[in-house]
Amino acid sequence: MTTTTPAVPNTAAEILAAAKALAPVLRERGPEIEENRRLPADVVELIRATGAFRMGFSRAWGGPELSSVEQTEVVEALAYGDSGAGWAAMIGMDSGLYASFLDERVAKEMFPHLDMTTAGLLFPTGKAEKTEGGYRLTGRWQFGSGITHADWVISGAFIYQDGEPFLVDGSHDSILLMVPREEVEIIDTWHTTGLAGSGSCDYAIHDVYVPEGHTLTFGEVRNGGGPLAQPEVHMRNMPGVPLGVARAALDWVRDQVVTKSAGGGANRWADNWRMQVALAECEADFNATRSAVYGAMERQWEVLSAGGTMDDLTPDERAALPLSRAHAFRTARSIVMRLYDLMQTGAIYKPNPLDRWLRDTMVMCQHVVAQDKILQSAGAHLLGARPSFPLSLGITS
């Protein structure tokens, strides 16, 4: 008897449906994922089977080429099930996005199938020494989310030649380098308050040769084009994680209130004025925040898919992209905190999912996309001044 492996979903509708179907399983596996401090191998394969890791690969390569909105919806669905799984899926699917910044022949050698994952830290904390045909890479990086199941590791590094800092083409002093996971040392530092399941360990690379073809910068698209071949593309679907968590927390609390009110009586939770007002406020904040995220991305996609560039967005439209992302993270944390207070002492015990959602949103808000640097960069752009994190606005020069 022979068995046939089911085909991996390859359209937006199929991938989203598979992610939504997997969410209850992820919710059930949540305590195990957190205790494991990384995704168990079979959970990685369950996510891979949804098609989530292939979302960024182009149709020209046989991929689904999901829009940024569609990618975010999938991440949101997975994070609704489990925060760590949603985060790891969001990071892992960047393989297809990075492919646009590599030579096509090299990229196809690196990614022989569409469901391969990438992890790593983009900020240049390593040292890339120029050598014949490439670089010798050495360094240590933090926050390698999903690195324990990654195929490739991408890392930022400052460029050196003969031991001295080197400026390429007189324009940039750092580069991104991609190394096979087997050549990377994982350092198990991921003992955190929350988001434990993302497995965001430190990692080190020791004098590894990286061919020139395995390097990239977001300022140069080497193959393909279109809305996904843009310098800030890897940041767009990030709000799916906090939105998914906030929606999960809201639905869980509402279900608790309804369940505890089912018996009737004079003290039904559903009739409690405090419950009604707090839940309504949280729903209002969630709906407004989610609409801002998707509205900004939809406008960006409209401009880029019509052949425009990021420069064709108005300053307000361009600033709305990083601002809506940051606001989604902070609002999700605020919603979960208010729900935690609403449920009072019942929320403090670890079997209660609010405990984990609170810790997870606290940790994810420490990511740079939720920090004041984003507010400064957007505000500076609106005022015609210098952003401290221009890449968040899709600016590379």
From TrEMBL:
Source organism: Streptomyces lichenis
Signal peptide: none
Pfam families in the cross-refs: Acyl-CoA_dh_2, Acyl-CoA_dh_N
Domain Acyl-CoA dehydrogenase C-terminal: 242-371
TM regions (residue ranges): none
Record keywords: Oxidoreductase
Residues in Acyl-CoA dehydrogenase/oxidase N-terminal domain copies: 25-98
UniProt keyword annotation of Oxidoreductase present: yes
Protein name as it appears in the record: Acyl-CoA dehydrogenase
UniProt record similarity statement: Belongs to the HpaH/HsaA monooxygenase family.
